[in-house]
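FIELD: query
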Amino acid sequence: MRLRSLTVQAIGPFAGRHTVDFDALGTSGLFLLEGPTGAGKSTLIDAVVFALYGKVAGADASEERLRSAYAPDDVESVVELVFETAAGVHRVRRTPAYQRAKRRGAGTTTAQASVKAWRLPADVDPAAGPDVLDTVGTLLGARLDEVGAEMQRVVGLDRTQFVQTIVLPQGEFARFLRANPEDRRGLLQKIFGTQVYEQVQKQLAQMRREADRAVDAARADLAEAVAHLLGACALPDDDTVRVRGLLDEAVAGPQVADRVATVVDATTTDLARQADDAAVASASATAAWEGARDAHETARATAALVERRAVLRTGLARLDADAEQHASDAVRLVAARAAAAVRPVLTGADDASTAQEAARKALAAAVDAAPADLLPPGEPGPGWRDPVEAARSAAADDAARLERLVAVEARLDADRHEVRDLAAVLDDLRSEVALADAWLAARPAARAALVVRLEAARATAAQTGERAARLDAAERLVQDVEAHRAADAERTVAAAARDEAARAAHAAVRAEADLRSARVAGLAGELAAGLAPGGACPVCGGTEHPAPAAVPDDHVTDEQVDAAQAVREAAERVLAEAGATHAALVERVAGLAARTGGQDAAAAVAARDAARAALAEAQQADATATDLAAQTEAFDAATQARHVLRDEVDAQLRTAELALVARREQLDRAEAEVVEGRDGYPTVAARHAVLDARASLAAALLGALADERAAAEHAAARTAELRSVLAEHGFATADEAREAWSAPDALAALERQVQDVAAERARLLGGLAEPALATLAEDVGVDLDATGAVERAARAAADDLAGRARVTRERARAASAAAARVLAAARSLDEHAAHAAPVARMAALAAGTGGDNARALSLPTYVLARRFEDVVAAANDRLRVMSDGRYELVRSDAKEDVRSRTTGLSMRVVDHRTEQERDPRTLSGGETFYVSLCLALGMADVVTAEAGGIELGTLFVDEGFGALDPHVLDQVLVELGRLRAGGRVVGVVSHVEALKQAIADRVEVRPTRQGPSTLRVLAG
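FIELD: result
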């Protein structure tokens, strides 16, 4: 992986937008990221890691620190990174989550994290602006989860592994060196892509388990098949034990199928021979039983014929005894059938006579009911028809002419009420028109007042924007005043801290000076303490020392002076930091004072409250204007609706006037017609009722005359028909036919009785005429008991032998099927055992548990150990130079501690001064730095050389150089410079002065007097 460019905005101490062109810095292969402590060097590395993984480099660091405290609320915090891998050129843009001020109102709200990723063309300029990059890139995703997964796939490392191999930040530089074998295993496996070997080991172990399960299952199937075979054979106990022993012996050895087949064939052959013998004996017994059965069946048939002949002869004798009664029943049946045919005609003649008598009585009643002037002279007869019909027609016509006047007379009262109601409605309509005219006359003045209120509300609402701007300005002023008060308080505290630091620094300076003076004063005694008799004085060169100075009790040592110097330097650093903090606060207080114009908090709050009230008034006026506009529209709509209603009522008034005149004329005409139609009766309805009753009585008399004549004609026809039918069926009189008639149920019973007797006689005679009975001898005899006993004995013998044959046959068949299953299971066991042997050997070899693997290394560990040896060898090439040949790394097969499960990935440090191996954790801080640096660079060499490995094209080293002495620092720089030949780029993060002199390409990070940091890229 190679970084191309990094852009940050409002991130950490960087308030503005800054871009680092790694392509330019990578030309020399080595660049320096330098600046004062806290200026933002590590922030740039955090930005790289955050862009790729959404988290910063430090394991304990929080993403909340990414938001710049110096950035305005309207400036978004953004990190953009362009990088290149084997998968191509990619660009990722992330924004962290942070708290920002609300755009309206007080308080804060959360700006949510976001991300976008693109794939860019290979020839793209990574330093181009976002406007250019957005047009040439292909968007890969805009969700946190999908972009996170895509970045890890493209880079090939997760965040922890990325930090341990590419970005080595403060606090995590030597983590890989000090890691336990299990952690090293995961990192190396991910970097070198050796997961396939672990998958091979797991696959072989799974194949071995499956092969073992298959062998066990085959062995169990064979045991179950043997048990089924022994059960199917049903051998005596001694034979069962013998056969089982032979089968167990065959299964225990090699070539199981062949050995088992010998035992199984011998057992099933004997059972088949026994089944054949039993089948022959069963067939002979069955033939004997079938002969005895046929003889017994013949005897039973003969006995049944003798019995049936006797029963038929008895029934025929009984019928002969009742022959006379049967003949009488047949004669009665013929007469009853003839009377049944005459019965309908006889009933019809009786009904016609009855109807004729009823018609005569109805005619007499109609004559009595009719008025005298309606009856013609003489007796009722056909001559009455025409006069009565003429009277009925005249009365009906007169009644029909009066029906309309009856209805007119009935409606007179309703018509009179309707005229009165129309007159009242006309008065109401005239009143409603007058009221509408008065209401409409008052509307223009009311609308004018409403319009005046609307225009005033709109004028106030038009000032909403201006008043909102004044409120925003007032709120900013309140915030600035509050910030000025807080900053002034912080400045006071910082001034006190600066003064206190100054006093402490002055005291430390004085203390160091006093100690140095005391040290100088006591040097004579210290030199005298080293004089020996006859020895030369290091000051004067004399050999005699008559009065050597004594060492005072409070003599100051070099260590005390050095300690005082360290205290003085620390106090001066604290003073410098306190002074910088105070100066920044003084500048901030001055800037806030200029922005507030010297206003106090009370005045600012009062101005803000007034602006807020004015804005609320304008907003309320806007709502009021909206409401008044709606009221005006409703007012105009109501006026228009009332105009329409008034016109409608006026039209109704004119229509009602015309309708009243017409209804009065209709009422006058109706009253005149009713008076004329009464013709001497009290009402038209009374006259109509009299005429209607006369027509009804005439019609009733005509109907009675017609009915009486029709009944007489029908009765004569039925009487003639009866005489003809009686003669046809042999009856002299109607009474004779009535006597011969029988009810339908009795006739049906008599008919069934006659038919049953005839059928029974025919059945008996037919039965005796059958050939079997006609040819049967009169003296035939049969012994069924003897033939039955012979048949039962033969059947018992046949059943016994058939059962034995069936048992032996089923046992032989079951044994044959079980034998086939045993042989199949034996062959399956041989096949699975042959397949499992090489699989088990390979699985044991890959797991490190087989005898062929003397070092007990698993396949993945063996592969990683070889790769790890390459890493250690590459690291030692640099370590020998950096340590002047003192240290060397070696891989160890031993476990580093009792809790470690992995062997082969342990590491020791050989100290060639003592020729002893050491734990890497015993190295000093400076030694740990350059040893782990060599290890990281060696890993980069090996990974880059690996085909298909992850290309570590860029490496960051954050801090640790301050722990090196000048000689080792020079050696480290020489090794870092050698990386240029391999095409890699190393970024050194440090503020060590020697590195500034040695590395020309750099990124300078500097804090400004206003607080935020800025950066400058120097390359080429």
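FIELD: remark
The CA atoms of residues 182 and 581 lie 47 Å apart.
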